[in-house]
């Protein structure tokens, strides 16, 4: 069955530390891949997306993500986390020709001072 | 401009009330979406409109009635809701909804709905 998995429900990092949030997908063909961030009570903000080409994509707020076809993964990274990065992070996929997104269950990021 | 606006921000309604949620975008997008999101959960797709026609209905109860009056506006009419319908309702838009590169969705801030 087609699915999107974010293995980490909750991650806590210290401010200034590096961050990696994992996302794995299971589809027959490579889907289009997205990362969104959601602050409490807010809508989702697009951080970055991957359609094709360079497998390392840069996004807003200093985030980047790397697509690895062999691992069916699209992990989100940031070299130095800021307290304002504390939020819920969702990975999403759009299968080719599908017309709708499937979201992972999300990862809650807590940032320690 | 990548803004999607939603009104109202908060809505409290009784189970016998009729209310509407409104979503607007001026990015020239031809696909618009309604999502329902419960706390600590991902958004759940409810409806997709493509070129002002309903293209996807994810088996949503009839007490939710979407409407797309024009390419910039999307409404969600609510009637006889249940307390379990309380949630954050998110609207999104994209250039298209065809499973291609134009499917990047931009979300509004949501309407926080409470059903008493």
Oligomer: heterodimer
Judged by helices, strands and strand pairing, the structural class of chain A is mainly beta
Strand portion of chain B = over 45%
| H and E string of chain A | EEEEEEEEEEEE
User: Roughly how many Å is the radius of gyration of chain A?
Assistant: 13 Å
Q: How many helical stretches of chain B?
A: 0
Please mark out the parts of chain A with pLDDT under 50 across 5 or more consecutive residues, or reply none: none
General description of the model:
- The complex is a heterodimer of chains A (113) and B (116).
- Chain A has 113 residues and is mostly beta strands.
- Chain A contains no helices and 12 strands.
- In chain A, strands 2, 5, 6, 10, 11 and 12 form a 6-stranded mixed beta sheet that branches.
- In chain A, a hairpin with a 5-residue loop joins strand 7 (56-58) and strand 8 (64-68).
- In chain B, 0% of the residues lie in helices and 55% in strands.
- Chain A binds chain B through residues 32, 34, 36, 41-46, 49, 51, 88, 90, 94-101, 103-106, 108, and chain B through 4, 6, 31, 33, 40-43, 45, 48, 50, 55-56, 88, 90, 92, 97-101, 103-110, 112.
Furnish the topology, listing elements before pairings:
The complex is a heterodimer of chains A (about 110) and B (about 120).
Chain A (H helix, E strand, L loop, with lengths): L2 E3 L4 E5 L4 E3 L2 E3 L5 E7 L5 E7 L5 E3 L5 E5 L4 E6 L8 E8 L7 E2 L3 E6 L1
Parallel strand pairs in A: 2-12
Antiparallel strand pairs in A: 1-4, 3-9, 5-6, 5-10, 7-8, 8-9, 10-11, 10-12
Chain B lengths: L3 E4 L2 E4 L4 E8 L5 E7 L6 E7 L2 E5 L6 E7 L2 E7 L7 E8 L11 E2 L3 E5 L1
Parallel strand pairs in B: 2-11
Antiparallel strand pairs in B: 1-3, 3-8, 4-5, 4-9, 5-6, 7-8, 9-10, 9-11
Quick synopsis:
Chain A has 113 residues and is mostly beta strands. Chain A is built from no helices and twelve strands.
């Amino acid at each position: 069955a087609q699915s999107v998995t974010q293995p980490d429900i909750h991650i806590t990092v210290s401010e200034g530390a590096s961050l990696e949030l994992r996302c794995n997908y299971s589809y027959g063909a490579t889907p289009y891949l997205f990362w969104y961030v959601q602050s409490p009570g807010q809508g989702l903000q697009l951080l970055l997306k991957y359609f094709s080409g360079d497998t390392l994509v840069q996004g807003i707020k200093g985030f980047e993500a790397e697509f690895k076809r062999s691992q069916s993964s699209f992990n989100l990274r940031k070299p130095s986390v800021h307290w304002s990065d504390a939020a819920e992070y969702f990975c999403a996929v759009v299968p080719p020709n599908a017309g709708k997104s499937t979201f992972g269950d999300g990862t809650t990021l807590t940032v320690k001072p | 401009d990548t803004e999607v606006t939603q009104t109202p921000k908060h809505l409290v309604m009784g189970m016998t009330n009729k209310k509407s949620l409104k979503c607007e975008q001026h990015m020239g997008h031809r696909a618009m979406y309604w999502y329902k999101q419960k706390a600590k959960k991902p958004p759940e797709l409810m409806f997709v409109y493509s070129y002002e026609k309903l293209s996807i209905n994810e088996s949503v109860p009839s007490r939710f009635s979407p409407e797309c009056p024009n390419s910039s506006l999307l409404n969600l009419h609510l009637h006889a809701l249940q307390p379990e319908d309380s949630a954050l309702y998110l609207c999104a838009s994209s250039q298209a909804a065809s499973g291609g590169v134009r499917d990047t969705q931009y979300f509004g801030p949501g309407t926080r709905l409470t059903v008493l």
